[in-house]
Design a protein that fits this description.
The complex is a heterodimer of chains A (about 70) and B (about 220). Chain A contains five helices and no strands. By secondary structure, chain A is mainly alpha-helical. Chain B has two domains: about 20-115, Rna Polymerase Sigma Factor, Chain: A (Orthogonal Bundle); about 130-210, Orthogonal Bundle (Arc Repressor Mutant, subunit A), CATH 1.10.10.10. In chain B, about 65% of the residues lie in helices and about 0% in strands. Chain B has helices spanning about 20-30, 30-55, 65-85, 95-115, 130-135, 140-160, 160-175, 180-185, 190-210. The longest helix of chain B has 25 residues, at about 30-55. The radius of gyration of chain B is 24 Å and the shape is elongated. Classes of the chains: A mainly alpha (about 70), B mainly alpha (about 220). Chains A and B meet through helix 1, helix 2 and helix 5 of A and helix 2, helix 4, helix 6 and helix 9 of B.
Amino acid sequence: MNAWTALDRFLRTDPRDVGCAEAMELLHVYAELAVTDASAAQRYPGIAAHLAACGPCGEDFDGLLAAIRSPAQ
Amino acid sequence: MVPADPVDGISPPPRLDTDSGGWIRVLSGTGLQREAGLARLHELLLRIARAELQRRSGQFRITGPELDDLAYQAAADALLAIDLKLGQFRGESRFTTWAYKFVIFEVSGKIGRHFWANPAVPMDAEDWDRLPGRLGPDPARETERRELADAVHRAVDEQLTPRQRKVFVAIVLNGVPLDALVAELGSTRNAIYKTMFDARRKLRAALAANGYLDDQTSRHS
């Protein structure tokens, strides 16, 4: 991938992206769905699009998944 | 395990699993039972905060007592937020999943604020030669580096509002984490993300209009 392709990828936006506020509001619902079945992204495409594009929300999602899966659960 | 026995006069909302219902009953109650519930929840939140800080330890230089102090702060702040918002829990997930979300957000906020203890680059520095390397693999050809940096610099100057420009320069050129910028500007993650989202859309349209990018792939790929 050259620098122009990387720039193109970085600048592309997904119109389904719901933004941080909605993703953070529903993150617990999305995360629990993600660990119990595979339909989270189909059911919440706007949140899936956002988590793919937003580094901080994606990091929070990974952290919440790790917490849900932690041994004391 | 949290006791599931109902506290006098308080019934859990419908549709809650047994464990979540137990948490709500205890935390909505009064007296020693509520205090015990809060202490138990704080233990859980502290464990999650420590684990999350360890998981993200590659992103910052915090270790030992300072890291544990951050974990305690995150757990205490999350506990306060959960207690205040208890009435907003609608049973869409297990109670613990909902509660863990708060402590994960607190950890993110505290890491963001900690960035300013020792920032590598000032947030308003403008070294446009750094741009190609910030986007991924550094192009070998100097001409490609120069063309890309000049095109984006021009589009930023011509298309972005002062606010969009400030956010773009901080995040893209200077590598300021979004949550650190939120703390510095006293803003919200959603507002900064939306500013960047709009900036990305405007820059892509301008670069496409000038023939640098097209609707499908980049001209130079």
